Structures are given as C-alpha cells and as structure tokens.
Amino acid sequence: MKQIINRKWGQWPLALTTVSVLSLPMGAVAAESCDNGFLVADGQRCVKWDSITTVEKEPQPTDPGNYFYDFDRSYDNYGALLTNRPMIEPDAALGGMYMYGGDYVRIGVSYPSFVTASRLIEGGIPSAQRPPYRDDARNRKLPYNLNAVKVGRQDIAAPNCTVCHSSTVDGKLVQGLGRFNHFIGTDARGFTLNVLGIGVAAVFRGDILVQLDQGLTLLLRLFRDASTHGHLFDVFAGLGMRHDQDTLKWTGRINRLQGHNPSSGMKGWIDFPAWWLTKKKNALYQAGTGRGAKADHMLYMSWFSVDGIEEAEEIQNNFAHVQKWIEEEIPVPKFEDFGPKIDRNLASAGKPVFLRNCAVCHGTYSENEAEETYPNFLVDLEEVGTDPYLAQKNWIYPVKSWWDDSWYGKRGTSSIEKTNGYYAPPLDGVFITAPYFHNGSVPTLEAVLDSSKRPTVWTSNYKDNDYDWNAVGWKNKPLDWRPNFEVKPATGIGIGRGRYDTRKAGNSNKGHTYGDHLTADDRRAVLEYLKTL
Asked: Cα–Cα distance between 401 and 179 in angstroms, integer?
C-alpha cells in the first residue's frame, strides 16, 4: 500500500486537489473559488486545506529491552509464557494466540460453571463462530469473546477484546467488526448467558466462592466509575487512574490531588472502528488520539486487573504480537460472502464519481494493495460538521494526565493527543460496518450519502440476519417504545438495543453532507461501488 506523505496542499497532485470545470457533470455549478483547497460534491463545495491535518506515522519502538514472549502451545498448558525464549520481532501467530488464549484480563466468571451453564442453556458453541487459534481443549468450550484463564487456584472465563471488537453477521463470525448494537456485549454470549443458570451451576459444581469473588470484583471495578461519571466509557479512565502511576499496583483510589478525574463530559454513543483498518491508519480511534505504538493503546482492557509493572510489561510486549496479528491476518470482509450479487456495471459507473468526490480524503482502492493510497487525514469539526462530543470531550482525554506521568507514558513509545476533528477513515469493508459515523447515528450507507434519509429517531433489532443489502446497513424503523441507550447514573448500566434518538447530546446525525450534491443516480452508483471495497 502506498502512503501519501505530502503535507502541504501545494504539493498534492492536481487530480487529487481540484476538479476541472470540464469534468463536472452536466448542469453542475462549480464553487466560485477554491484557493488553498480542493473541490468535492461535484465541484460545488470547497474544502480548505487549513481544515485538514495529516496524521504522520510515528517511529515504532526499537528498544531491545522491549522483547516479546513466546508461548507454550500444548493443550495442557496452552498460552503459558515461555519467558526464557525472548523474541525481538513481533509474530502474528503469537498475537492470535494471545488474543484468544492470553490472560491479559484476569477477572471473569467461574470457568466450570460457565461451561456447564452454556451447554444447558445454549447447547455449546457453533463451529462457524469459533475463530482461529482456538483449538485447545479448554478454550473450545467457550464463546470467542471469553478466554480460559488461571488466576492462582481459580479457574475462570475472562473477557477478551472481542467482547466489543467482533460480531456475527448471518451466523458468521466477523473478526474485528465492532459491536454494532449500541450497547457493549448485548449480543456477546459471555455477558448474556442466564446469570441464574451460572449461579445454579456454581452451586452444583462447588465453586460458588470463586463465582462470588470474581463476580463482586468485576462488578465493583466495572460499575464504580460508570455509576458516578457521565459516560460508560469513563470506566476505562477510572480503571487506569486507580493504579499507582509509578508501580502500576492496583490501589482502588484516584489521586485527585494530582488533578486526576475520570469524568470526561462525554455524551452519546461511540462506535467501534473495524480492526482491519488498523494497518492503514497512523493513529487509533476515530479522533486520532492514540499515537505512536498502536499496541500500547490496544491494551486498555487489561486495566481491569493488571497489578504491577512486571505484569504490565508482559501484557504490553505481547500486544505487539496482537498488533502484528491484526494488521496481517484480520481479513477484510467481502460483500460476496454476505449479500446478493454486485451490479458490476453500476459499480464501475460509481468509481469515477467516488474518485472525483471522496478519494482525496478516504483514499483509493485496488485489487493490488500496493497501488492503493490512504492520506491519513484528520478533518476539523468545522468542516465535517458531525457531532462534536467525541472530539471535544473524548473519554480518553482525562487519561492523558495520568498516562503522561505513568510507567506507560515514561516509556516514550506512545502518546495520547487531543484533537478537534475526526479521521476520514479507510473504507475497506465499509459495507458491513453499519451503523455509520463515529457515534453510530446513521443506520445505512444510503443515508450517509443522502442526509434527507437519516431518521431522527430509529430502532433496529440488530439480528445478525437483518441487514439491508440494498441500502447497505441495518433494517430500521422510526420510533419505538423502548428507551434509548444511555448511562444511568444510579446504576452505571445502559438499557441497550433500544431506539436511537439523534436529538440527544452526542447522538447527532448531522454533518458529512458531501453526498447531498450528487444526483440520485450518482449516489446509487457510488453505493454499489462501495460494496466492492
């Protein structure tokens, strides 16, 4: 993949910075002037280069001390560290093993009780939902989003990153597809199995004490911050800050005398970016906040249980394996594997419209990856016009004050940056990543391209076979009796799978109206082309 590195507008090729009046569709009216900018919306809108920031690729860690561990691959001791076998280079296969077998989260539910309840309630794990690197006997009994972990004498099933970052569509597991139903874990079986069933199993299996110990610890750490702050994601800020900055030992306390406060002021929902886009982006997250070594930012979930620098370094080094695995082995989903046949003639007609209006920010695409380009543009709020909350009151901003002076920040391999805009993301596999925008406020790609089709209040049942392949997104309907997802201060939990109200703070579906100026035929053609990416 080619990486465009030019930063100043004057250095960009003419084809990517302007649209000749001669190339405009019949009847289109060019913007009066577009000095120091580029034309989109078939020449009817000028985007100034002053509103664009290029996120540069930062050097990756080269310190030989940042060695990476190998694992025991035997069934009896699967995933155990072999610390006497250091590896200087990260390994994708080890990353897959660590994702689906590692103990980077050491809090969960009783493993024996969960397996018993799972068999009784759901009849086991469907083979179509079993990911690679899941062949050991213990983990085969768990859904993809839980790992079998030993904590002292306790045998537990602990959540892994795919609780939020993988989903099923048409019964097929799509690795790296962010949770799409506006509530963490509402369709993750590790979190929706009948709690009573697990409790009953714990009684019969004699591990009720393990269940109580693990359950109370998880609930305390998960809900303490979520129940006292404005947004569910503030829990991650709170978890980080409850560790000593120098030793990373769990203290359970937030040092407010040093100015640490997990409350971000964030409102609304946050969508999960697809993992397969990671290799193209120079920073993680929609606002481009995670800079430097991406692996450093992928491990926030470990803050639930990490206790000390030795453990933190083990996790951080092994997440370099995970980053390698994500960037090399997570496949881009193909429309042909899910939806009806693509109209290739219509898609071909949509490609030049895309190149003329979208490619300058979202990149170019080819069957030959080496011929692709992606500019890593961060677009200012004033230009893109989408909901401002995540850019201005990002849940990760409070973490920065703690991070910078902690063991993580002092390593110098990564940083948390404050921004005032959003990534124009790569569009590989965009057909399957609904709902759209950073807050998931637009249910279909059709509505992304035509803002008049964006519902104000809508709901979807999010069943994995309820996708609208014509509009490209989730089937939805306006107004529903169910409440909207939001954090409840009294309980710290959200009521999920409800209606999405774009009138609420943080949930706006406004902005990114570049497609409104296209003709209906051009929008239909671009939509068909997007299915091919």
From this structure: 29
